[in-house]
Amino acid sequence: MKRYGLVEAGGTKFVLGVASNKDDIEATTRIETTTPAETLGAMVDWFRSQGDLSGFGVASFGPLILDKTSPDWGHIGITPKPHWSGADLAGSLKIAFGLPLAIDTDVNGAALAEARWGVGQGANSVLYFTVGTGIGGGAVVDGRIVHGLSHPEMGHIRLPRHPDDREFAGTCPFHGDCLEGLASGPAIIARWGASLSDLPADHVGHDIIASYLAQTVVTMQAVFAPLSIIFGGGVMGTVGMIDRVRVQAKALGNGYFAGDIDEIVTLPGLGDKAGLLGALALAQAD
């Protein structure tokens, strides 16, 4: 039986695991995301303690360089995360172990896992968004992850501004008020000094963030006509947020798009395991 090393690489933490299948995650650990040398060194050390492995699956924050003809394949691209631009994430494991390795974005991995084992089962088009420290989106169509020149960057789409949110410049260092710059966890704290879940239930922030996510839903309906749009990440842990998004998406869609929003727009079926199981899905698919 093949045993895979799994990496869910995030901007604040790396979650590592070993598994042979989705129902048998043998071991896990968490490493804080500090500098590449420190974090990747600790990652390699932990996997060395886990016995024989058959390969690795890595689901990582982006942007990632995924062109296999590039000498920079498996590196982190230009990121606002200090010290991590150009970090050789895949190479640190390839050099240490010399085993097969599959790498993709965390959201692409989660989309693949949800399509195989979660709420996206049976759907020919599955989108997965994480709304947290950043915002990213991944797509699986007919069982395959969508790539182009690179991986999709759905967190950087541009949206009309909410009428009560016109003055905020946005937090994205590249685009200002893109989706990530308006609706990510840091953007919420930058406006209102607290996470969304800590704001009063009647605070205007709930409506503003839901409106941006609802706009994302109808935009993706127009582009992909997906059967499943899944929202994960810490912001979506806010009580009632998924329902607010559904209500506003229905209003924005105005009956034009096919399907029932209440069935299409969901939270992850795999819960907080979507990222790690995404790494497993990538490893098994390689």
| Low-pLDDT segments | none
- What structural class results from the helix and strand content? alpha/beta
For the sheet with most strands, the description reads: 5 strands, mixed
**How many separate helices?**
9
Report how far the terminal alpha carbons are from each other: 16 Å
Helix proportion of residues, in percent? 25-40%
CA radius of gyration is: 19 Å
Question: How many beta strands in the DSSP annotation?
Answer: 10
Mean pLDDT: 95
Q: How large a portion of the residues is in β-strands, by DSSP E? A: 15-25%
Approximate shape: globular
Order of strands in the sheet with most strands: 3-2-1-4-5
The succession of helices and strands, N to C, reads EEEHEHEHEEEHHHEHHEH
Could you explain how this protein is built, in words?
This protein has 286 residues and is α/β, with parallel strands linked by helices. The protein is built from nine helices and ten strands. It has helices spanning 36-48, 89-97, 106-117, 179-183, 185-192, 204-224, 241-253, 261-264, 274-285, and strands spanning 4-9, 13-21, 24-32, 55-60, 101-105, 125-131, 135-141, 144-145, 228-232, 265-266. The strands form two sheets. It has a five-stranded mixed sheet with strand order 3-2-1-4-5, sandwiched between helices. Strands 8-7-6-9-10 form a five-stranded mixed sheet, sandwiched between helices. The radius of gyration is 19 Å and the shape is globular. The mean pLDDT is 95.
